[in-house]
Amino acid sequence: MRRLRQWIDHFGLLPAGVPDAQTGKVAEAERGLHSSGHASAPELLEIIETINPRVVIPIHTEAPELFADKVG
């Protein structure tokens, strides 16, 4: 989260959907916003279910076991 805040500050952006530095909470109106450019885990699982590939090779993840547990 610290890196994200640094980039937001660097570019002078107005954060949205980012937890407040003091409280750690996201404003109600901003909950569910996703702006990283990457799909979230639930979105990835939905894509995998829709495409129904024979093989899933998780990359660019810190939790590849999530995919093994969810999609076999």
Automatic annotation (TrEMBL):
Any matching Pfam family: RMMBL
InterPro entries, alphabetized: RibonucZ/Hydroxyglut_hydro, RMMBL
Domain Zn-dependent metallo-hydrolase RNA specificity span(s) in chain numbering: 28-66
Protein name, entry field: Zn-dependent metallo-hydrolase RNA specificity domain-containing protein
Species per Swiss-Prot/TrEMBL record: marine sediment metagenome
